[in-house]
Design goal:
Strand order of the largest sheet: 1-2
Number of helices: 0
Number of strands: 2
Strand content: 25-35%
Shape: flat
Distance between the termini: 33 Å
Structural class: mainly beta
Radius of gyration: 13 Å
Largest sheet: 2 strands, antiparallel
Helix content: under 10%
């Protein structure tokens, strides 16, 4: 069984390069995560609950 040693999850912030948009560039370590199967399409998210992604 695989073991995950560490993971980081994006935290949303205003994007200074594009007014009115958000970015998840800042990744922060988490003690634990909940995962789910991401959707079948590109851009459906990472499969990590609470991870920031935009559409």
């Amino acid at each position: 069984m695989p073991i995950v040693l560490s993971t980081c999850v994006a935290r949303p912030h205003d994007n200074p390069a594009r007014k009115g948009s958000r970015t998840g560039i800042e990744k922060l370590p988490r003690q634990s995560i909940d995962v789910f199967a991401p959707g079948p399409n590109y851009g459906d998210g990472s499969g990590v609950t609470g991870d920031f992604y935009w559409r």
